[in-house]
Amino acid sequence: MEILQDKARIPNAEIARQIGMAPSAVLERIRKLENQGIISGYEVRLNPEHFGQKLSAFVFIEATQVGTDTLFEQLANITGVQEIHQVAGKDGYLLKLRVADTEALGRILRDEIAALEGVRATRTQIVLSTFKETRRVALNCSTDE
How far apart are CA 57 and CA 80, in angstroms? Predict the structure, then answer.
């Protein structure tokens, strides 16, 4: 799995060569991992700055009621929202947004997020710089298998 996390487009034959297995056995194992939901998909990582999305921000949302599917769905449909997390504490949700600039962020906060029924208040943290950003999963930790 570590090989696939490094380069998802690596050919099965190359994985087989690296780990000393037959390509057909590698393909079978990968399909099993996909069927079991261990591998949930493959995606290309695009450079957001190339598309004019230079600003990242985290938005804490204090909701009148936490855990409602309607609010989740409405937040998920807002352009620029990359992640939505239900969190413990005063704030019910944490969003990660990627937008062009502070003007776009302000418009989304004011016209889209604050306008949703169930949103009581928001707090926003603008990212000044990013040192690490990944979707990799640590494979060296213990599991309950």
Answer: 10
Tell me the helix, strand and coil percentages in the chain, rounded to 5: 35, 20, 45
CATH classification at residue 63 = 3.30.70.920
For residues 53 and 110, membership in a common domain is answered with: yes
Residues 30 and 66 in one domain: no
**pTM surpassing 0.85?**
no
pLDDT per residue rounded down to tens, the chain (145 residues): 778 877 788 888 889 899 999 989 999 999 999 999 999 888 888 888 899 999 999 999 998 887 778 889 999 999 999 999 999 988 889 999 999 999 999 999 999 999 999 999 999 999 999 998 887 788 876 555 4
